[in-house]
Amino acid sequence: MSLDPVVLALLAGPVAISVAGRNAELRPSVAHAYGCRAVEDGKLLRLFVLREETRQLLADITANGEVATVYSDVRSFRSVQIKGHGARIVPSDAADVARRAAHYRITAEELVALGYPSALAHGYFSVPARADFVTIEFAPRDVFRQTPGPGAGDKLAEGTTLDQSPDKKAGVA
Amino acid sequence: MSAVSLTALRAALEGAIPSEIATCDALGTPNVSVISDVHYVDTDHVAISYQFFSKTRANILANPHATVLLKHPNTCAQYRLQLTYLRTELAGPLFETMRAKLAGIASHEGMSGIFHLLGADIYHVDGAEIVRGDLLPLPPPHAPLLAALRQTLPKVRAARDLDGLVAILLEALRSEFRLPHVMLLMADDACDRLYTVASQGYPESGVGAEILPGQGVIGVAARERTPIRITHATRDYLYGRAIRDALRASPMAAQLETEIPLPGLPDSGSQIAVPILGGQDLLGIIYAESPEAGRFGYDEEDALMILAAEAAAAMRQISAEADDVFTADDLATSTESGTPLLVRHYPADDSVFIDDEYVIKGVAGAILWFLLTEHARSGRVEFSNKELRLAPQIRLPEFSENLEARLILLRRRLAERSQVLALDKAGRGRFRLNLSRPVQLIEP
User: Fold this and answer.
1) Which residue stretches of chain A have pLDDT < 50?
2) Measured between CB atoms, does A18 come within 8 Å of chain B?
3) B363-381 b/e with 16+ CB inside 10 Å = b?
4) Å from A71 to nearest chain B CA?
5) Architecture of the CATH domain A5-145
6) What is the pLDDT at residue B170?
7) What is the C-alpha separation between B396 and B400, in angstroms, rounded?
8) What's the pTM?
9) Residue B313 lies in a domain
10) B199/B100 same-domain check
11) Quick check: helix, strand or coil at residue B424?
């Protein structure tokens, strides 16, 4: 599936991103992602994670490919969750590196604009000098509205957008 | 990544930065959600706010494993907790502590209408690890709390009477704990209310102001006998007008102090109220506030709870020691001159007016009227706590610390309201009525 333009715009903006997997005992793993890149209108999503922060998550994804990701706009807390099967770990490419740098810049700048001290705003999204990044790639299967409050967890059916009122529930995340 | 004790991570459990929680359903589909509050319970437990039924909640009921990612609000450190869901609490001290905290977080995030607490989900912490260490240095503490306790506790233990103890507490809170805006309230169990005996850092002291259990930060701390802390002060818990309205609407309104407003900072950023507990009995509340958001953390709460515990022990000790015996030889008289002071008493609520200005009512009003009538009858100016306790006109609650507390508030209230009439200490368990003008007593 390709993603709604509103969802794609959210993913491209100043968002905090987290990725979760789970092991064979169904114990979840979770880590922060340092940006994401949508390929072909979101038919594929690529998320950038630090290997040293994600050993369990990478092991879980390698073992079973289950993945859940959440993207939360730092300005509005507007959030969306995207899940998929068959996720895999691949090397980061040049487009990933460029996108990661852009994500760092716009997210930190937005936090500064919101009034966070610059050192903190940059600190949360900064990475070590010799960072060992890998990319988690998966095909989105389900998209859920995740903004806190009523309607959080509603599944976005094909053809509906993130901003529609959540009166017709197609599922709950 | 290294293992670490949960207690060392408490700063990341203030709700200042949202956290993420990952769960997994019974079929093996993971879920990750942003949550506003992971609350420290003890070294092995955290609680997570349950605000509405979500996929996270459905998952933990089916599969109790969860993993949480936390961020330190100052250092950018990241931590990860492995959790197992145990149970949900729907009421009680922990629930109220989290409800107040959540109200502050919601206000901070502009979502007051959305964040209603339905329950406190309790989790066992199976493991805690540092995902990334401190990137930025920790800011220096506002006050050296351990040193403040070490300096203050011996003085608290040495207090000989309640008046002295109140003075020691206020001075220590200001100079050692660096809390310029504080109030000390005493509980009146028999009448189910709290009254302000002392404060500092406000234009009006508010001494004598009353509050009902359950109202605002102070009232909830009193009712639940648990510390209540708000890192970003919120309308939901502001006392001011709402609390006075509640007092006036109470069926006991006639017996409650509704004329003296509770003081408060107009732009309060953080608030904390800790109970002074003697066993299960609520003796009072220490309250502090600050214009700064996020001023009070877990460490401040710990320090004030230790101080409150010592204050409770001192109060119990003071009230257990017998009053000095009053002897008739101590009779002294005062010299008054000038135009008489008009003092009016209304027996229905024991309210007292001096020259048509309201002063006080209730127990403190009854004490003042008793002293003035006794003085008018015998000319006596020295009195003992013991005779007040025995006087049928003064309907005292059973706990004797209440009498001293009422005398403190009466003394402070008179000092604020009258140049002519004062109560001064005259030895342990004794005090002197100082009048510089004659008094004319009127009882309609």
Assistant:
1) 164-173
2) yes
3) bbbbbbbbbbbbbeeeebb
4) 9
5) Roll (2.30)
6) 97
7) 8
8) 0.82
9) yes
10) no
11) strand
